[in-house]
Specification:
heterodimer, A: 110 residues, alpha+beta, Arc Repressor Mutant, subunit A, three-stranded antiparallel sheet, 4 helices, 13% strand, B: 407 residues, mainly beta, 52 strands
């Protein structure tokens, strides 16, 4: 139903590892919007992923220190950590380089 | 108490409910009068429902529902729709709206604080305080808010915002984003945009030109039309198809401007800088090639690769890098031509022609020619020093005043 956050790669040239980093960036961007109040179902609507698939991804992100898990009012909510934000910054910076490599050449003269 | 319950699957006609309203799954509610339905208390929907007329309540709650309001919806307190989708055909008015899955608005709406987990689709204008969407937001009319924050993709028409933050892709029609634009992936504006700071990780496109303050783009910036800024920093490629004006430009890769470039401070480009018009800048540092119709620089110029101008490059100090090639006149108080570099005509107070460099013409107060260098013609006012291994094609001529450049 909802669209993914960053563009999903469609080219097989960049392999599974790339797809996983896109997926993690998508989840982290959605978590970030909820400012620490996002529950798993809410994040699933934002990320456009089923809850069971999302749950294993957030567990991995939490284990890597990119997400923080917080019990709140009997529910579990998620928030991005400083390391998670660092990952996002690096991810988008890398996307910037990709854009540069794919940018068209222009050789105009005065 | 005046509470009303609409049973599962039933069709009900209502005018006013003095207490609370509970609507069970599959119900359809129609108003008895064109004025619509007014609920003094809360309206709770426990499943899918359709409301066929204007509807007003204090608080609207829904759980696991698909709700369709075929006319206006006015909520005095808040909309809280858990695991639900809400569609409103008429205007929606509510100070706080929280929808888990999807909110679909057909008419101009005023939403105060809006929070949607999945998708917001608005076919008309939206006015709010903060609009937060986890997944995707599409507003086809004008958006007015202090903040729009979207996790995935945002596509807005004309905007009047303070902040616009998007994780993936952000597009706006044009308008004003007065404080900050922060987009992780790609940002584009199809009309003229006036903004505060712009931070984009990947690529940014301003198709109608614009004016902003700090611009920071990781990959590629493309602007069609005139562009004003305070500081422009681009990691890869910057292209401005029009006049550009600002304090400072810092581009890691390639810079191209299809007009005049006016900077109060520095132009710093790691690779190639091409300006089809004239350049006016405080200082210039180009790692690769510099091409312009002409340039006037208030202080220093340092170019590593190649310089090409029609109307000359004028500065206080010019340093031409090793093996650099210069087409067009250089005019400065102090000019240093690096080892092995070539230049056409050089006019200055003091000119050093480096080892193995080749210059067609030098006209200066003081001229120094290093070993292995070759100069076609030298005209000097005060002092001339030529290394024994250097070559001058025509006998140097001492003149009374510094030769005037032809540009």
């Amino acid at each position: 139903m909802t669209g993914p956050a960053p563009e999903r790669p469609t080219r097989p040239a960049v392999n599974r590892r790339r797809e996983q980093s896109d997926l993690y960036a998508t989840i982290l961007e959605v978590v970030k919007r909820h400012e620490g109040t996002g529950r798993i179902t809410r994040i699933s609507y934002g990320a456009g992923m089923p809850v069971d698939r999302l749950r294993s991804a957030v567990e991995r992100l939490a284990a890597l220190g990119l997400l923080e898990v917080r019990p709140q009012d009997g529910f579990v909510t998620y928030d991005i950590t400083a390391r998670g934000q660092e990952f996002l910054n690096t991810y988008w910076k890398m996307r910037g380089f990709t854009e540069m490599f794919e940018g068209r050449d222009r050789h105009r003269t005065p | 108490m005046g509470d009303v319950r609409i049973p599962k699957g039933s069709q009900a006609r209502l005018t006013a409910v003095e207490g609370n309203l509970v609507v069970e799954p599959g119900a359809t509610i129609e108003p008895e009068t064109p004025a619509g339905i007014s609920v003094r208390g809360d309206a709770t929907f426990t499943g899918d429902a359709t409301v066929r007329g204007p509807f007003t309540c204090r608080r609207l709650q829904a759980r696991k529902s698909r709700l369709r309001f075929e006319s206006s919806l006015t909520v005095h307190d808040a909309v809280d729709a858990d695991h639900s989708t809400l569609e409103v055909v008429g205007p929606l008015t509510a100070p706080r709206v929280d929808v888990d899955k999807e909110l679909h608005l057909h008419a101009d709406s005023s939403v105060g604080r809006l929070d949607v987990g999945g998708r917001l689709l608005a076919e008309a204008a939206v006015r709010g305080e903060t609009l937060r969407v986890g997944g995707r937001a599409e507003v086809r009319g004008r958006t007015e808010a202090s903040e729009v924050s979207v996790g995935g993709q945002a596509s807005l028409g004309d905007v009047e915002l303070a902040r616009f933050e998007v994780g993936g892709l952000g597009t706006v029609g044009g308008g004003t984003i007065r404080d900050r634009i922060a987009v992780g992936g790609k940002f584009s504006a199809t009309g003229r945009l006036v903004f505060g700071d712009l931070e984009v990780g990947g690529a940014a496109t301003l198709e109608g030109g614009g004016a902003g303050k700090k611009v920071d783009v990781g990959g590629v910036l493309r602007v069609v039309g005139a562009f004003q800024f305070s500081r422009l920093s681009v990691g890869g490629i910057a292209e401005i198809e029009g006049d550009a004006e600002g304090d400072r430009v810092d581009v890691g890769g390639r810079f191209w401007a299809g007009g005049n470039l006016t900077l109060t401070d520095r132009l710093e480009v790691g690779g190639q800088a091409t300006v089809t018009g004239r350049v006016a800048a405080g200082s210039l540092e180009i790692g690769g090639e510099f091409v312009a119709r002409g340039a006037t620089v208030a202080t220093d110029v340092e170019v590593g690769g190649r310089i090409r101008t029609e109307q000359g490059l004028r500065a206080v100090r010019i340093a031409v890098g090793r093996n650099c090639s210069v087409q067009g006149a250089l005019i400065a108080e102090r000019i240093r031509i690096g080892r092995g570099a070539t230049a056409e005509s050089v006019f200055g107070g003091s000119v050093d022609v480096g080892p193995d460099a080749h210059v067609e013409y030098v006209g200066a107060d003081e001229v120094q020619v290093a070993s292995g260098a070759r100069v076609g013609t030298i005209e000097y006012v005060r002092d001339l020093r030529i290394d024994g291994s250097a070559k001058v094609d025509r006998p140097p001529r001492r003149v009374a005043t510094r030769p005037t450049p032809p540009v």
